[in-house]
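Re: [help] complex structure
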Amino acid sequence: MARQIHEYHPTIGYTFIPELRARIPHEAGGYTVKTNSKGFRCEHEVTADKPPHTYRIALFGDSFTAGDGVNNSQRYGDVLEKRFPGLQVLNFGLSGTGTDQQYLIYQQFVKEIEFDLLMICPWVENIRRVAAHYRLVTSRAEGEEGYLAKPYFELQDRKLNLHQVPVPKGTFTKDQLPEQDQDYVDVGGRHQLARELVNTYLKPLKSVIQSATKFQPVPAYDDPNNPDWQLMKAILVQWASESGGRPVLIAPIPMYHHIEQSAPADGIVQRFEELEQHPNINVVNTLPRFWEEPTKDRKRCRFKTDPHLTPYGHQVLADALAPAVSRYVEAAK
Amino acid sequence: MSIDVLGISCYYHDSAATLVRDGEIIAAVQEERFTRRKHDPGFPDNAINYCLEEGEIDPNELSAVVFYDNPLQTFDRIVKSLLHAAPNGVDQWLKAAPTWLGLKLKVQQTIHERLDPDVKVLFSDHHMSHAASAFYPSPYSDAAVITMDGVGEWATTAVGAGHGESLEIFDEIRFPHSLGLLYSAFTYYTGFRVNSGEYKLMGLAAYGEPEYESLIRDHLIDIKDDGSYRLNMDYFGFLDSNMMISQKFEDLLGGPAREPESRISRRDMNLASSIQVVLEDVVLKLARRARKQTGLPNLVLAGGVALNCVANGKILSEGIFDNVWIQPAAGDAGGALGAALVASHTYFDVPRQVETRGRDGQKGSYLGPAYSNREVKAFLDYREYPYSQVSDDERAATVASAIADGKIIGYMVGRMEYGPRSLGARSILGDARNVDTQSIMNLKIKFRESFRPFAPSVLEAYCEEYFGLKTDSPYMLLVAPVNEDRWIVSDTVIPDDGDMLPLINRPRSDIPAVTHVDYSARIQTVSPAEKPDYYAVIKEFEKLTGYGLIVNTSFNVRGEPIVASPEDAYRCFMRTGIDMLVLENCILIKNEQPEFPEDVDWKDTYAVD
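Output below.
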């Protein structure tokens, strides 16, 4: 029986259990999830005041930031911290969340604490989660599939309205989902049936099929007027406006399809560049650094079957972010 | 840099893993607790994962992984035994060969595949692993060592000595002559499950008379004065067939083996008593020999036979050694610990620190996973199970009061026990004074009609008020008599039809739930140093009732591995007649819980011992 690692949270849906130490079996041998007293996979306690002579980054994202598949010390946030003396990275990454939930984490846990830079690193796939009211999940403890409710925003008259808070507890079967929510379920990707068929019967050919079809896992970025992008953009802009005047660095984390160039990333790059129209937002495109890797090495950035970043992938991502972080740290001196 | 050694035992029964850091036991756990498959023999992936978790270490940081047994030597024994038995035994070979060639001979490859391709892999000898598990955690700088089990490689019994970091085995009895297999043959013959039901046979012995002792001595085993022995293989089947015994065994003892689950007859009781007497004779002779050979005042024991706490009690009461320490995970699971310890001290030359602050280096055997209050609450909140949260003091008072009211408590607090006994971390608790406790626990919780009494957990300082035991027994591995002034003497004659029920349920002392038919008890002494929460419960109970002891039985149902996680505990709570569940500082009351529907009849899930 695997250790349960999440606890219920009425606004966010769930958080990591505080002061947890859980080793998660994984295709790469396993990794340890350690959380602080607030329930974040963060090596530091979250204090209201930052330590003296420290440049403090509040870092947000999903499992790519929380570090699924790797130990705390191997994550790009921790790698960056080691590269810059005096830098403290408070990692508020939470696996399985959308940008909406990450924004709520900011409101609940971070807004009032002292920090220097707000760094938001959405995995580009998060756009689907932002649009979803429920997510299909597999319980790690029980191994059972179910639908998990999440908070979500709707954009009405350019205003963000929060719904489904408090978040309903527990998991649901498909039949139990409300009728009006049936179209707002994130099942983990497009073309669910085709994915299952490929993963079951054609797994060795998966890369070839993806390349040949130029399968785009996140087409919502291709259209600037796409409602899912409009919603995600509104959340990011609203979030940046609440940063208390601090700089905001947004660095979308690409999917392996984009890193390995089996799918085009132009739409993603263009959409996130739109955010730079806002005064305190700086966007970093991390893809060029990944593409500096020889083609054969790009696959080393992810695990064989798990799409999360390997320790090597985290190093490359840290490389991509380091110049921007360096500018902020140096400027603060 | 610390020396981190991972010990592994698997592929026979009771797989386990342990982590030893600089000679200190960091973690130890059996695989069955995670897979929920009793005596799980598989590669201990989950147990290893837990050990790495507890040690906060990755496989590539391990100094070595040590396997508890030498597969090549065991393979050699199997091949030679079969050649000896040829042309018989072909079936046995055909059954064993695929497992051996497919799994056991590839241990190193498996470890490299599952853990790290570059990790150093070492092998210990089976009885050296047992000996190390007994000697190194013991509180003695020097000790005689005896290990006894069914078989490991060639050896079945070993005698040796430990001094500081060194450990030597100087005498062995070799397969097929095996005290463990002899006892297992009787386990099978009396209708219990081999490698699992031996403790039942031991409990049954108290009801019988040793009427078959002479037959056993005359035909089955030849025992010398120094404790060495030989079996007459004409009577056993384990050398050349898939059976424990031969037709000749059945002819000698007057009939076929008892059908499992059928009524136990007076004959079965007498058989149990007889083999117990013989086993004790061998064990005592071996102990005298070890004392003579080593001249040492301390004895340590391991191997499956060391779980025979009646024999252990005899060693102690005979005064052969001044001190006796028994590895609580005496069976093959403990081999994982011994393997890690012997590698630490003899391969990596880690200095041995004999534990002087506590009782020993075993840490009360609370070496498995714990679940924090936050984890418990996360589990309960997610499922919306009603509970109340209490302080440590409130918990002790609440539990003690409920026990005094005749309630049965499922108690899960702290790190899980390593070894087959529940010692107050994963226990079901009840009132030892209550004449109904034994039958309630048997029928509503264990779902069995057992002839065995439950064990008492007694405050260390109060032990002599109740029992004729002048030493501590933290691991429930010693049997001693209930003090005579507490006895309620009555007729102990079992009717001819062998129905033991009237006798079982008859009170035999003022602590009837823990008093066996021969007025003995299998004792756990509890100290505040090693298990303060559990000590506090019994202390509160003592304040309420004047009795410093309670009933402690394993937190499981018949045939199920002991619970490990809050979810396991809740499931067992809801399936049984347990009244109150304690999960760390959360208390749940049965009649406040929602319905617990299940798709299958769980009683079909677990095999009977």
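Residues 197 and 203 of chain A are 9 Å apart (CA to CA).
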